[in-house]
Amino acid sequence: MRVAVAFTAIIGLQLAYAAVTQPPVSCGTNPADIHFLLDSSGSVGSPNFQKQKDFVAKFADQFTIGPKNVQIGVTTFASTTHPQFFMNKYHDKTSLVNAIKAVPYQSGNTHTDEALKWVDQHAFTSAAGDRPGVVNILIVMTDGQSGNPPQTVIEAAKLHGHNIRVFAIGIGNGIRRTELEKIASDNAHVFTVTNFDALQTLQAELKKTACKVDGGYSSYGGWSKCSKTCGGGTKHRDRTCTNPKPANGGKNCVGPSRDTQPCNAQACPTLPPPTTTHIPTTTLKSCGTVPADIHFLLDASGSVGSSNYQKQKDFVAKFADSFTIGPQNVQIGVTTFSSQVHNQFFMNKYNSKAPLVSAIKAMPYQSGGTNTDTAIKYVDGNAFTKPHGDRDHVVNILIVMTDGQSAHPPKTAAEAKILHGHNVKVFAIGIGNGIKRAELETIATDSAHVFTVQNFDALNTLQAELKKTACKVDGGWTKYGFWSPCSKTCGSGTHYRERTCSNPPPANGGKNCVGAARDTQPCNTQPCPTTPPPTTRPPTTPYIATTLAKSCGVVPADIVFILDSSGSVGLPNFNKMLDFVKNMIKGFDIGPTGAHIGLVTFSSKPHLEFHLNKFTDKAKTTAGVTNIHYISGGTNTADALKYARTTSFLPANGARGNAAKIAIVITDGKSQSPPATAQEAQRLRDQGVTVFSVGVGTGPNLPELNAMATDPNNQHVFVVNNFDALKQIKGTLQQKACEVKATTMPPPAKNCGSKADIVFLLDSSGSVGSTDFKKMLGFVEGVVDKFTIGPNDIQVGVDTFQSTVKKEFNMNQYSDKNAMKAAVKNIAYHGGGTNTGPAIKFMTDNSFSTAAGHRAGVPKIAIVITDGNSANRANTLAEAQKARASGMQVIAIGVGHGINQGELEGIASKPKSQFVYNAENFDVLNTLQASLSSKTCEASTPQNATKDCGTVADIVFTLDSSGSVGKANFDKMLAFVKTMVKGFNVGQNKIQIGIQTFSNRAKVQFNLNKFADKQAVMTAIDHIPYVSGGTNTGTALKTMYSKMFTQANGDRPGIPNIGIVITDGRSNNPPNTANEAKNLLCFLLFSRLWF
User: Fold this and answer.
1) How far apart (Å, rounded) are the C-alpha atoms in residues 280 and 462?
2) pTM above 0.90, yes or no
3) From 554's CA, which of 285, 672, 898, 1064 has a CA 20 to 30 Å away?
4) DSSP bridge partners of 294
5) Could you give the CA distance from residue 566 to residue 635 in angstroms, rounded to a whole number?
6) Which of 862, 869, 860 is nearest to 836 (CA)?
7) Do the Cβ atoms of 361 and 385 come closer than 8 Å?
8) What is the DSSP string of 391-441?
9) Where mainly found (predicted)?
10) Among 743, 782, 726, which Cα is nearest to 663's?
C-alpha cells in the first residue's frame, strides 16, 4: 500500500526533512495545475494554520513557477469557502510564496463539502488558469471530519469524474481515514501525520506522487471517410495519449488509439442515386475564441431510432470539438425532446472540451412523440438564463435538429415566434423525408438559417456551412451611458451620452451597428440672469460633491461596505476602491462605542472579508482592508445584499442595537438580476439599514442604483466617471453616513400567553441532510420554549414531509413543554423528494381536525419550513390557498439559496412582510426565533380581544408612506390601524373610516362613505400599497380637510371629525405643514411620531 511507502519514507527521514540524503524526484519544468484546499476551521487554530501555510510555501518553492510550467492556487474553508488566489494569479515564485504567507486564518465549522463543490466549479476552469492537456491536482488538507460527510463524498465523486487527481492529507487524531479515502482519487493519494509539526516530513513523498503523471487519452477525433461508398467499407477515428502525456514515471495510456467501425454496408445500386439536396462543402474559417452561447435541441423521438440518434450526437460532438470551450469563449448546452423534454446539461456545466464531448456522447436516447412546441418553450424559459450560463453581450444561438413534423404545428410556430423576440438566433436542421420545409422556416430565425440533408449519414457535410453562419455575429448597440455635464449653465448649452457597438461586437463577417454612437441634445436653455442665482441642486440628479467631512465623533454606527469585485472592475480599479474605503475609514472614530466596520466583496457570489466585530481600532481595520484580494467573476449584487441582511447585520456578527445601520454599495456595472437586486435592497432597508449606492463609470444603471438606495435618491445615490474620481465624493458620503440615526429595533418577544393551535410542517427531503435537519429541530424547540404549552394555552403539533407525509405528533398529544421538546428532538430524518403540496393538504385535512386537538374559535397557525422548490409548484400554491381559505394563518420560512421566493410568498398569508421569513442557512435559522415567536403571538390574539367602541364619529387616518418609513414598518402601521378598527362599531349610523397615505403627494385610499361594515374596511386596508418618496405632510393635511371631510365624501354634519396622523419624521416643508394644520383647528387632530 502507498501508505506504508509514505511512512517508510517518513521513518527513513527520521522525522526531519533536513536529514534527507536522496533528493526527491523533481518535476523540473513539467507543467502542472495544482490547487491547495486548506482547512481554516476553529479546530485548526492560528498557530497550526501558520504551519499549514509554511508547508505549502515550501512545497511551492521546489517548482519552476510560470504560465508554461507549474501553476499553484489556494482556497481556504471553514463555515464558508474563501478563494485566496487562482492558479494564474502569480507567475513567479517570490510573489507566489509571499501570497501564500499572507493568506488569513478564518475559524469556523468544517464545511468540506461546500469547499469541494466550489473548487470543482471554479478552481480548474480556463478563467482560473486551467490549461488543456495539463494534469490537474487538488491537495486537500484537514485536521478533522467534515460537517456533512454524505455530501462531502458526493462532491468528491463529482471532482473525480472531472479528471482531477485529488490528494487528501489528514493531520492529527480528529481525522477519519475512510472519509479521506473517499475524498482522494484512491488510497495511494491519502497521507496522514500525527500533528502539524510533522507535516514537513511529507514533502518529498507528496511531491514524488504528485509529479507522477499517468497518460490519458484525448477525445476521439472525427471519423475518416468510409473506404467504400457502398458494399461494406470501414472508417476510423484516432485519439492521442496527450490528455495529459505520461511523465515522471507515470503509466502510458491503456487501450488502442484507433477505433475502427464498418460503414456503408448497403448493397451497391445498379444505377447512381439521384441528387436531391444541395450540400455546401466549403471549408470555412473557425470562430476562434469569439464567445458564443450555443444550445442544441435534439429530436429523440421514436422515428429517429437509436442508431440515428447516435449519429446526431456524433455531429454535435464534432461541432463542439471545433471550438475553444470555456466561460470566456464558447459555451454549449444540450436539451433532448420526444413526448417529454429532458435537459441534458446547461451551457455553464462544462468549462473545457474533453468533459463536454464526453457528456454529449453519454446522452441517452428516449423515444416517443415529437412535441417540438413544448421543447422550444422549455428552452426559451430555461436555457438562455443567467443561472444556466447566459452572458451579457454574447450572441445566443439555438440549433434545433429534427427528422419530422411536430405534433402541434400551430403551437410550435407560436413558441418559435416568442423565442425570436428574445434575441436568440435559431437554426433549424431537417433530416430525411419526413420533414416539412415550411415548419422549419417558422422555427428558424429566417430561411437562411434552415438546413436540410437527405439522411443522418449526411449530417457531417453541414459542419462547415453551419459553423460559418453560426459564427457570423452582427453588432448591436449597448444602452446609452449617463449624460455628460451641460456645456453651459444657462443660455443654451449641449450635453451628450454615448453607446458602443459591443452588445455584441460584430465578428466573423457580421454587420456593424447602424446609427450614431453619440446622442447630443440641448440643455440649460433658460436665459442667463444678470445677477448670480442661488446655488441649488436638481433633486433627480445623482449627488456629486467634493465636501471635506469632519470626523463623525464618537457616534455608534455599524457600517458594512459591499464592494464589486467582478471581472469588469479589474485589479487596478479594485485597489483604487480599497484605497477609497481606507480614506473613508480615516473619517470615522473606530472603537467599542464608536463606528464598527464590516466588509463584503462580491462577484458571482458574496465573499465575507471581515465582520463588524472583527476589528476595534482604526489601524487594524485599515490593515484588514489592505489584505483583501480581488476575485473577478459575475455581478451578483442581489446575493451580496442578501448576505449583508442575513449575516453581516446580525448581533452574533457585531451588529449593535443602539447603532445606526449603514450599507455602502460600490459597483461599476449592472447586476445580473435587477429585479432580485431591488427586492433584496428593499428587504435590507426594511431591517432598518440605510443604503448608499455608488456607481462608477458608464456601466451602472441609474434606476438600479436608485432602487438599491434609501430615499431620497439625491441624498443616497452617488455617481462618478471613473475609479480615480471616487475621492471627489469621499467627504460628502462620509458626512451623509455620519448623519444617519440609529433605528430602534423591536423588543425581544415575551412569553406568549394567548391561545393558539400551531402545526409545524418540516421539510425532511434529501436536499436538507441529516445535519441541517437537526438544526431545524433545534429551531422548533427554541420557538416552543417561548410558549405556554397546555390544553388551555398553546398547543403544538409537528408533521414532516419529503416524498410522503409523516405525522410526528398531534397538537393534543403533549401538554407538558419538556415532554414536547423531547419529542421534537427525537424526530427522525427521512430524505426523499420535496412534495410540499400533498403535505399542506394532509395538514389541512388531518392536523387541524378536532380529533387532532383543534379547538373551536382558537386561531389556526401553520409554520412551513423548507430549503427548496416543491416538486409541483402549481399544486403547492393551490393547496396553500385552500389552507388559508379554511381560516389558517400560514407562516413560510425559506432556508438557503435553493428557495423559489415567489413560491414561498405564494404559500404564506398576506402581507408577505409579516408572514414570510428567510434565513441564509440553517446555522442562522435560530436568529429568527424571537421574531417568529412574536409574530405567532400576534396571530393568536383573539379577534374579539377589544370591545367595540359605541361612539359615533368620522375618522380619517393619514399615514406616512415616505422612503424613511420602509415597507416593513409601513405594514406595521397598517396592522396598527387594523387593530384600532377592530375596536370600532363601523357603519353608516356609527363610526365611519377613511384613509389616505402620503409621501411626495397625498393619495386618498378610500373615503368615509366607501365602506359600511368593519370587514370591508379591514380588507381594504390589506390592499393599501406602499409608495415611498418624500414627506409632504402639508399637502396631506390639506387633502384631509378640503376633500375627505366633505359631505360629498361622507362627512356628516354634527358628528365629530377626528384626524389621526402617523409619521416617522419631519415634513419637507415645516412652515407649510403648520399653516395647513391651522385650517384643521375645528377638527380633533391626533398626531403620532411612529417608531
Assistant:
1) 7
2) no
3) 1064
4) 332, 397
5) 6
6) 869
7) no
8) -TTSEEEEEEEESS--S-HHHHHHHHHHHHTTTEEEEEEEESSS--HHHHH
9) secreted
10) 743
The whole-angstrom distance between residue 999's C-alpha and the CA centroid of its chain comes to: 32
DSSP one-letter string for 249-313: TPPPPPS-SEEEEEE--SPPPSSPPPP-S----------TT--EEEEEEEE-STTT-HHHHHHHH
pLDDT digits (tens, 9 = 90+) for 475-532: 777 777 656 666 777 788 887 777 777 777 777 777 788 888 788 888 878 888 654 4
Which amino acid would we find at residue 694? V
The total number of residues shown for the chain amounts to: 1091
As a dihedral over the C-alpha atoms of residue 833, residue 835, residue 836, residue 841, rounded to 10 degrees, the angle is -150
The H helix count followed by the E strand count for the chain is 31, 33
Cα–Cα distance measured from residue 850 to residue 608, given in angstroms and rounded to the nearest whole number? 50
Q: Give the contacts of 818 (CB within 8 A, at least 6 positions apart).
A: none
The Cα 439–Cα 420 span in angstroms is 15
Distances (CA, A) of 155 to 111, 146, 773: 12, 12, 20
Tell me the Ramachandran region of residue 910: left when phi exceeds 0, alpha when psi lies from -120 to 50, beta otherwise. beta
CA distances from 543 to 497, 539, 559, 693, 1020 (A): 18, 9, 20, 11, 38
Sketch out the chain's domains with CATH numbers.
Answer: 2-211 (3.40.50.410), 292-471 (3.40.50.410), 557-739 (3.40.50.410), 756-939 (3.40.50.410), 953-1089 (3.40.50.410)
Query: Quick check: helix, strand or coil at residue 135?
Result: coil
Name the CA radius of gyration of the chain, rounded.
Answer: 34
C-alpha cell at 903: 413560491
Q: Cell triple for residue 774? A: 437537526
How many other β-carbons are positioned within 10 Å of the β-carbon of residue 67? Answer: 11
Instruction: Please calculate the CA angle 357-396-438 and round it to the nearest 5 degrees.
Output: 95
CA distance 33 to 338: 42
Q: Which amino acid is at 144?
A: G
For the beta carbon of residue 997, count every other beta carbon within 10 angstroms: 23
In whole angstroms, how far apart are CA 264 and each of 279, 335, 434, 457? Answer: 19, 30, 22, 9
Kindly report, residue by residue over 877-886, the tens digit of the pLDDT: 999 999 999 9
Phi-psi region of 399 (alpha: psi -120 to 50; beta: other; left: phi over 0): beta
Which positions of the chain have pLDDT values less than 70? Answer: 1-29, 205, 209-210, 248-249, 269-290, 469-470, 481-486, 529-555, 742-754, 913, 920, 923-951, 1065-1066, 1068, 1071-1091
Residue with cell 401538554: 815
As a whole number of angstroms, the distance between CA 715 and CA 730 comes to: 14
